[in-house]
Amino acid sequence: DVVKKTVSWLNVNLLPKIKWSDTKKDVAPEILTWFIVQTVKQKQIEPSPLLRRYFEKFEKTGGEKFAQFALESWIAADTQPFPADEAETKAKNDLASAKGYWQYWQNQGFTEDSYFQQQFNQYLKKPKGSAIKEKGVLAIASAGGSAAIVPSIERYIREFHGHRLKQSIALVEVLGEVGDTNAIQVLLSIANRFRTKGIQEEAKRQVDLTAERNNWTLDELADRTIPTLGFDDKGAMKLDYGSRQFTAKLDKDFNFVLFDAQNKKIKSLPIAKKDDDADLVKDAKTTFTNAKKSLKQILTLQKERLYEAMSGQRSWKFADWQTFLNGHPILRRYCQTLIWQLVDGENSVTFRPLDDGTLTDFDDNEVVIDDEKLIKLAHQQTVSPEIAESWNAHLSDYEVSPIFPQFGREMPELSDEELEATEIKGFEGFMIETFKLRGKATAMGFTRGQAEDAGWFYYYKKNFPNLELDAFVEFTGNGLPEESRNVALVALSFAKTNAQNSGYLNAQNGLKIKDVPPVVLCEVWNDMKTIAQSGTGFDADWKKKSEY
């Protein structure tokens, strides 16, 4: 059997039933298996012209099912764990080897039983083999994939990027081929924030190709591809059953709320009736389910983007901002919690967008901005203390909770000598446990630094892509895999992105503190202050106590 010989892990009995778009007749399963075999042999993620033509002839929903089937089958094959009997044998072998230096494991708190159980559990989760040789089947996912395949790809990359580099890069290429707005937003996130170089570079390549195809800048690409999830300009999602219509909306906490045709709230979409259109019912339920799955990711990514825009002082032409951000059915909720500012040289005009489409200042006066004017997100460093105080009072009066603070974070007081230096040493010697450091740093948008000799890393990095700038929270270091121990903070430093070649930042390639944009300096210094305050404080004996 050609299929079994080429793709031994494929279960043809699970092939989805799909139809031709013109005749509505079933597509013969032999056609689907033929494409699976051919794509595996061709070993390309980019779909062939023939494959694309066939997907154009399939019914759209059927093609999407075939794409999903190909992707999920490949992922399942690539991540198939060891069966229990093999896991047990391997764990026993590991235990026998470990007994040769058992004192070490005893010092780590292990008994023979607990060590065996740890190894056994790891093998039950660890992939036994690899499906990288059959990566060509992903061309099917590329040809017919939609927003529905994006969560599976993102989940795989997040979980396996450290062990499955080639597979992760292949899946990034799939995201680029799919071109769905959800896929593009994930690509942007990986390109800007992912720490694994090969994966990040492929994401950047795919982002650049997409922007080039549309003649957009990268910022324009990010703005124009924010998914709407099916919500219209008024924030309503129409769900059509044929004989009945329903509407989904988001409440103030971004929870989905359903209404029937009489605008009465209902708990869930009802089951289909005889006079409903079965295909429309299926489409409505799929749309609603996919929207619920995707919303959290969209909110997370857009919050990160807006924070980066504030830190990097990115500007928008007011008309573009009105169309793509404040006019977006989901993102406008975030816009309404933030204070915006006219880029006019004086930084005196500030405003907040309201739900009725108007703009207000902190005294409830209407603000009008010309379409061609540039605006940006306001910050403590771009307005007077009086304006910042007035906006904080306004937000409090109207019980508006910003998605991140813009005002109130203090600026470090630095001497002329410190401004000429390339490091801020104010938190040197503050002790903190490694997992607490990782948790705090990750929550504030930092990623783990590059491992050096002997698998140790010495910093957490936050990237500001619009400024091509990296910020580094340096500490005394930890080995990989990480273990819980006490470490000391060392310094805060900055460098232009990619200025360092091999990872560890040093004074020779760092920016002088005086050259760091004030908003970035303020934000990152406060991040490091938060990290320092979450530890046990300064310890004069920090060098000795942080030794391995």
Describe the structure.
This protein has 548 residues and is α+β, with helices and mostly antiparallel strands. The protein folds into five domains: 2-80 and 130-224, no CATH class; 84-125; 237-300, no CATH class; 313-397, no CATH class; 416-545, TATA-Binding Protein, CATH 3.30.310. It is built from 21 helices and 17 strands. It has helices at 2-6, 29-42, 49-57, 60-78, 84-98, 102-107, 112-125, 138-144, 150-160, 165-178, 181-193, 197-214, 218-224, 278-312, 318-324, 331-335, 385-397, 416-420, 434-443, 518-533, 542-545; strands at residues 237-240, 245-250, 256-259, 265-266, 315-317, 340-342, 350-353, 359-360, 366-367, 374-377, 423-424, 430-433, 447-448, 456-464, 469-479, 486-496, 537-538. The strands form three sheets. Strands 11, 12, 13, 14, 15, 16 and 17 form a seven-stranded antiparallel beta sheet that branches. A six-stranded antiparallel beta sheet has the order 5-10-6-7-8-9. The protein has a four-stranded antiparallel beta sheet with strand order 1-2-3-4, covered by helices on one side. A hairpin with a 5-residue loop joins strand 8 (359-360) and strand 9 (366-367). Helix 11 crosses helix 12. The chain is globular. The N and C termini lie far apart (58 Å).
